[in-house]
Amino acid sequence: MLGLKLPTDPRWVNIVEKNIEEILTDHAYCEQKAASTAISLIIGFPEKSELVKEMTALAREEMGHFNMVHDKILKRGWVLGRERKDEYVIELMKFFPKGGSRETHLVHKLLYAALIEARSCERFRLLSEEIQDKELADFYRNLMVSEANHYTMFLAFARKYGDKKEVDQKWQALLEHEAELMKNLGKKETMHG
């Protein structure tokens, strides 16, 4: 359903289970960054009323998710750690060339967001099925549904604001690039890396 070309190695969950505090901190910041992305799309493309409306709702939802993850951290007696660099996102966002029209820039931002949400959804599914911590398994099962909806929303907007055939070609190329990136990731207790 997600179109990912390379699934996460299930052994990634074993890495996560060795440091739950680390994955929760990383996850909290992923939610905050997702809210920031939604806000940046509003600021960058205020004339796209439908996008603005959806991104307003998304920013609210993502900050709600951030709060839920933060509550899990506090419940376990920890505090939110410092933000880490997301190697996955940094490398992913080098794919499309810089420059181009505002519309092209918008389509690229939407495709990046769709792919990040798709990978998050896949990771949440894996955690919901494989992690031994029942509370976290249930938590990630519930989040997985939201992430799937986010992925399809971003992809639909990319197809709406760009030429559908061209967008679909770019999407497939981005998926191939992401699969290559994933061959070197999945060895850390981070949501994407």
TrEMBL record:
Write out the GO biological process terms: tRNA modification
A single Gene Ontology molecular function, please? tRNA 2-(methylsulfanyl)-N(6)-isopentenyladenosine(37) hydroxylase activity
One short Pfam name that applies is MiaE
Q: Which SUPFAM superfamilies does its entry note?
A: Ferritin-like (SSF47240)
Which CDD domains does the UniProt record give? MiaE
Q: Which InterPro entries match?
A: Ferritin-like, Ferritin-like_SF, tRNA-Hydrxlase_MiaE
Q: Give the protein name, as stated in the record.
A: tRNA-(Ms[2]io[6]A)-hydroxylase
